[in-house]
Amino acid sequence: MEPVHLTKQAADKIREIMIRENLTGQELRIGIRGGKCAGFEYVLDFTDKSNENDFSYESEGIKIVVDEISAGHLVGTIIDYLDGLNGSGFKFENPNAQRTCGCRQSFS
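User: That's the sequence. What structure does it adopt?
Assistant: Structure tokens below.
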């Protein structure tokens, strides 16, 4: 099961960050945590180890780990990277979100 899929633009940006921060060989940890205005917020981080109950897979050549609890809230999510006049950043398209906040970084 692949809870989250990266677009090519998101994967390219992640590779760029990994090279710049000397994180080559690490995995991208995607998850959620309580907080922000809508209830949950998305978390992206790098890790050099996965846990026993993590889902581990690749998307667009990026090794990804998602913890078991986050995976249930993220199934079908697509992460894109946008770079434009109104700012740049990762965009989460989560079909499980009942509502999102204006910051687009939190959902319920």
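The beta strands are 4-6, 27-35, 39-47, 55-59, 62-66, 77-84, 87-93, 106-107.
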